[in-house]
Amino acid sequence: MKILVTGARGQLGNEMRDVLERLNPGITTYIDMDDLDLADFDAVEKFLTDGDYSHVVNCAAYTAVERAEIEKSVCHRANVDAVSNLGRMSDRLGFKILHVSTDYVFDGNSSKPYTESDKVNPVSEYGISKRHGETALLGLAPDSIIIRTGWLYSSYGSNFVKTMLRLGEERKSLNVVFDQIGTPTYAADLAETIAAILFNRQWTPGIYNFSNEGACSWYDFATVIFKMANITDCHVSAITSKDYPSAVTRPHYSVLDKSKIKAVYGIEIPHWEESLARCLDRISADSDI
Ligand SMILES: NC(=O)c1ccc[n+]([C@@H]2O[C@H](COP(=O)([O-])OP(=O)(O)OC[C@H]3O[C@@H](n4cnc5c(N)ncnc54)[C@H](OP(=O)(O)O)[C@@H]3O)[C@@H](O)[C@H]2O)c1
Question: Phi and psi (nearest 5°) for 129?
Answer without folding.
Answer: -65, -40
